[in-house]
Amino acid sequence: MVSCSEKKSAVTTKETPSLSAKPGWLTSYEEAQKEAQAKHRLLVMDFTGSDWCGWCIMLDKEVFSKPEFKEYANKNLVLLELDFPRMKKMPPETVAQNERLAMKYGIQGFPTVVVFNSDGKPLGALGYEQGGPQVFIARLEKLRKG
Questions:
Q1: Domains of the chain, with CATH numbers?
Q2: Looking at the predicted structure, is the pLDDT value of residue 13 above 60?
Q3: Which long-range contacts (CB under 8 A, 24 or more apart) does 11-18 make?
Q4: What whole-number distance in Å separates Cα of residue 110 and Cα of residue 21?
Q5: What does 13-33 look like in DSSP terms, one character per residue?
């Protein structure tokens, strides 16, 4: 697993909607938790530096943006993006939520993908790994099955 480090976040003073989330990804931890529990799905929390971390960009390009992953996610996952951008501006409440969760789960570098069962129990963590969606989905399935 490879990662970038050095968390720095951009904060805006205006209340603007989050500009960070990729299509199909939530940015509210509370909303993601509720959806995972209601749909009995894994919660996948992607701690990312979307506009500066090379490994994060590769994970998005090689895994998260691929049709195979999107199809799997639509049936099995609730996706939560916890972004730590340097250039993108984010609402202060989103920045605070992301920093709080990074501290809670001991995030040291990016990307770190923390996986939980539908009851909120942590199952493990993943990062960037070569092999595209097939390898990533296999890792998720291994975590799901214990």
A1: 29-145 (3.40.30.10)
A2: no
A3: 11/89, 11/90, 11/92, 11/95, 12/89, 12/90, 12/91, 12/92, 13/92, 15/91, 16/89, 16/91, 17/91, 18/90, 18/91, 18/94
A4: 16
A5: SS------PPTT-B--HHHHH
DSSP lists the bridge partners of residue 40 as none
CA separation for the pair 126, 45 (Å, rounded)? 10
pLDDT at 19: 47
Q: What is the pTM of this model?
A: 0.88
What's the pLDDT score for residue 135?
Answer: 98
Sheet holding 112-116, edge to edge: 77-83, 42-48, 112-116, 122-126
* Average pLDDT of the residues in 113-138: 97
What's the pLDDT tens digit per position in 25-63? 999 999 999 999 999 999 999 999 999 999 999 999 999
Q: Give the whole-angstrom CA distance, residue 102 versus residue 89.
A: 18
Alpha-carbon span 57 to 107, nearest angstrom: 18
Q: Report the interhelical angle of 132-145 vs 67-76 (nearest 10°).
A: 20
